[in-house]
């Protein structure tokens, strides 16, 4: 039985890139650098014959590839960035393993126990350390462009229905490229990207991609729209008090004027009235129970560009 193509490629890559491996592991390497274009992986058994040297393609598709871990020519080469990234990953993981004994992992070896399902953007600038210093076994993350429910409904339902998370946090962020794309014409994007942009909600009066204020408001409006979708999907859990849906914006640009890096709550269970949202934020930050008061019914999304709150 033949090894899968991916295994063959990985094995060949490692075998032909001892320079990088010995360097990463602290070994001695004084051999002259090799350009990534000078090293290629042999085609897996059973594939089309390799094309002539230098072409990299055959009639059936590419059969020769640069070895990912060959020594690069320039620091700006994508392979240089790959090597740097993997070096950082290896070092950071080694530090993590060293600082976390086996007892750290025992509580979640066989099952996860998150308190929150978090739908957030795939944007690299949005990471959990900005709002949670111990996310392990506490956050069930669902990420896509535009922090939307439509294209990730199965994952969201898994968090709410199977993991029983009492919180569904829909977390947008200022400077969201997906929202900005949805504010304009994205018809030239690939079909896959268009499918992800289609569910994003942007009001007609906010379709001004070059207007910074409109962009910030569109980010908030999209969070409201995603909360509204969640309210429709999980009304039963919300009515029973088993689920709270929270919409928030991570503002690393300070577009909402609450401070750089602030997590700004803008919506709770579909309620966007600033006074009520502020009341919720104050209540969760206090150890004392608030005085009894009547609660407003869930009334869905209303256009409201000024729903920014602070504690």
Itemize the secondary structure elements and their pairings:
Elements: H1 5-15, H2 18-24, E1 57-58, E2 61-62, H3 78-99, H4 102-105, E3 116-121, E4 139-144, H5 153-162, E5 167-173, H6 177-182, H7 191-197, H8 212-233, H9 235-239, E6 244-251, E7 262-268, H10 274-284
Parallel strand pairs: 3-4, 3-5, 5-6
Antiparallel strand pairs: 1-2, 6-7
Description of the structure:
This protein has 311 residues and is an alpha/beta fold. The chain folds into two domains: 5-99, no CATH class; 110-284, Beta-carbonic Anhydrase, Chain A (3-Layer(aba) Sandwich), CATH 3.40.1050.10. Helix content is 34%, strand content 12%. The chain has helices spanning 5-15, 18-24, 78-99, 102-105, 153-162, 177-182, 191-197, 212-233, 235-239, 274-284; strands spanning 57-58, 61-62, 116-121, 139-144, 167-173, 244-251, 262-268. It has a five-stranded mixed beta sheet with strand order 4-3-5-6-7. Strands 1-2 form a two-stranded antiparallel ribbon. The chain is globular and about 60 Å long. The model is unreliable at 3-45, 47-56 and 289-311 (pLDDT under 50).
């Amino acid at each position: 039985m033949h090894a899968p193509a991916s295994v063959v490629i990985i094995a060949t890559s490692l075998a032909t890139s001892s320079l990088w491996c010995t360097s990463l592991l602290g070994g001695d390497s004084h051999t002259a650098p090799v350009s990534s274009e000078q090293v290629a992986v042999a085609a897996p058994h059973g594939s089309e014959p390799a094309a002539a040297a230098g072409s990299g393609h055959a009639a059936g598709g590419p059969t020769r590839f640069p070895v990912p871990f060959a020594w690069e020519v320039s620091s700006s080469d994508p392979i240089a960035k790959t090597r740097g990234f993997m070096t950082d990953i290896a070092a950071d993981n080694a530090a993590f393993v060293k600082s976390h004994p086996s007892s750290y992992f025992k509580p979640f070896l066989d099952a996860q126990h998150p308190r929150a399902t978090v739908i957030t953007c795939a944007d690299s600038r949005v990471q959990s350390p900005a709002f949670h210093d111990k996310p392990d076994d506490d956050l069930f993350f669902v990420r896509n462009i535009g922090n939307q429910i439509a294209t990730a409904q199965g994952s969201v339902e898994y968090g709410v229905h199977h993991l029983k998370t009492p919180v569904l946090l829909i977390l947008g962020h200022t400077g969201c490229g997906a929202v900005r794309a949805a504010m304009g014409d994205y018809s030239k994007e690939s079909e896959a990207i268009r499918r992800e942009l289609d569910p994003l909600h942007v009001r007609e009066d906010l379709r001004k991609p070059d207007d910074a204020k409109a962009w910030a408001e569109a980010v908030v409006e999209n969070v409201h729209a995603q909360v509204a979708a969640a309210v429709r999907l999980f009304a039963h859990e919300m009515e029973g008090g088993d689920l709270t849906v929270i919409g928030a914006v991570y503002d690393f640009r300070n577009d909402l004027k609450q401070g750089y890096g602030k997590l700004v709550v803008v919506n709770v269970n579909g309620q966007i009235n600033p006074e009520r949202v502020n009341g919720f934020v104050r209540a969760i930050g206090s150890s004392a129970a608030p005085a009894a008061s009547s609660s407003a019914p869930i009334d869905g999304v209303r256009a409201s560009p000024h729903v920014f709150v602070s504690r």
